[in-house]
Amino acid sequence: MTNTKTRIMLTGASGQIGTELLKILRRAHGDSLVVATDIQPLSDPALRESGPFELCDVTRRDRIMEVARKYDVGTIYHMAAILSATGEKNPQLAWNININGTYNVLETARELALSRIFIPSSIAAFGPETPRENTPQETILRPKTMYGVTKVAGELLADYYVRRFNVDVRGCRFPGIISHETLPGGGTTDYAVAIFYEAVKNRRYTCFLREDSRLPMMYMPDCLKSVTELMAADFGRLRHHTDFNLAAMSFTPAELAAEIKVHIPDFAVDYKPDFRQAIADSWPTSIDDSAARKEWGWNPAYDLKGMVKDMLDVLSRRHAEGRLNY
Ligand code: AKB
């Protein structure tokens, strides 16, 4: 059962992806039609003023339902989550937010017959027994982090709702996301954002992963493109729903540092791996995204060179204007 309600609700609107997704959703659908929600008020005054906002803790289903009913919501983008590194420090919190948050959004969708839901998964769904290179779409999912456990459970639960209750849920397994608007928080791939701020500000960076830790990554414009394109895809063409592998680029910290040095020759990096190294070692180095390419035309625009140039252009300009908040 679907409805024709046009309003959109976004959870985790203060987060790294949420902040930028909110902007493009409001641009595409109209400011007043996109309800931003988070457990804290939005910090960007322009975003705060531009449309409706509600405080919403995703572990409270009654609150999600209340907001969805109040605004006559038809679609939810569920971005609120605890990431891998924070999840290892506080596994109980990761379970509560990620599992109960996802279940509550799915139950809201079922009860209110919402039209479409987006729930992201992650490369954290894979584990050390998974083939690490060109990781296939269908493969072994035995993650060793609590974040990964919640992502696999979330994929399976969402898929169950597609098949059992006809809820139209979609999602992809995001690699590390690199961006310059809102800092990521609590992830293992966060080094690939921090390195840019430190390069621009201090010309030095101490990396918490080893220099040869190759991981799949993606630039934010491609991440946003993947969400909007998957959500616009014809349901009848989708064989997968909640677990699309996605790839854009893969690199090591040393390769990223070398590309930054092309633009900032005196940039220097040293390496002090911490507990996040074990998490990175359990994840793939590259991903086979042929299912996403075939089923909804996925095709990323940015490679390592293009992403590094764009990141440094934006952050250097901001630094020169005294606006690099880091
Ligand atoms: C993390 O590092 O935890 C996230 C992810 C890969 O899902 N960026």
Give an overview of the whole structure:
The chain is of the alpha/beta class and 326 residues long. It folds into two domains: 7-176 and 219-245, 3-Layer(aba) Sandwich (Rossmann fold); 181-217 and 249-284 and 302-320, UDP-galactose 4-epimerase, domain 1 (Alpha-Beta Complex). 44% of the residues lie in helices and 15% in strands. It has helices at residues 16-29, 45-50, 61-70, 84-89, 91-111, 146-165, 191-201, 220-232, 253-263, 276-281, 290-296, 304-320, and strands at 7-11, 34-38, 53-55, 73-78, 116-118, 121-122, 169-170, 172-174, 176-178, 204-207, 215-219, 244-245, 249-251, 268-271. The strands form four sheets. It has a six-stranded parallel sheet with strand order 3-2-1-4-5-7, sandwiched between helices. Strand 2 (34-38), helix 2 and strand 3 (53-55) form a beta-alpha-beta unit. Helix 3 (61-70) crosses helix 5, helix 7 packs across helix 12 (304-320) and helix 9 (253-263) packs across helix 12. The longest helix is centred in the N-terminal third of the chain and has 21 residues, at 91-111. It is globular. The mean pLDDT is 97. 2-amino-3-ketobutyric acid (AKB) binds at residues 83-84, 122-124, 147, 174-176, 187-189.
Residue stretches low in confidence (pLDDT < 50, at least 5 long) are none
Total number of distinct structural domains: 2
User: Care to count the β-strands?
Assistant: 14
Briefly note the structural class of the backbone.
alpha/beta
Portion in beta strands: 15-25%
Please name the CATH topology of the largest domain.
Rossmann fold
> Helix content range of the residues, please?
40-55%
Number of helices: 12
Kindly report the spatial arrangement of strands forming the biggest sheet: 3-2-1-4-5-7
Give me the strand/helix succession: EHEHEHEHHEEHEEEHEEHEEHEHHH
Can you identify the CATH superfamily of the largest domain?
NAD(P)-binding Rossmann-like Domain
Q: What is the average of the pLDDT values?
A: 97
Biggest sheet: strands, sense, closure?
6 strands, parallel
Q: What is the CATH class of the largest domain? A: Alpha Beta
Q: C-alpha Rg, in Å?
A: 19 Å
Q: Globular, elongated, flat, extended or rod-shaped: what is the shape?
A: globular
Instruction: Tell me the CATH architecture of the largest domain.
Output: 3-Layer(aba) Sandwich
Bound compounds: 2-amino-3-ketobutyric acid
Distance between the termini: 46 Å
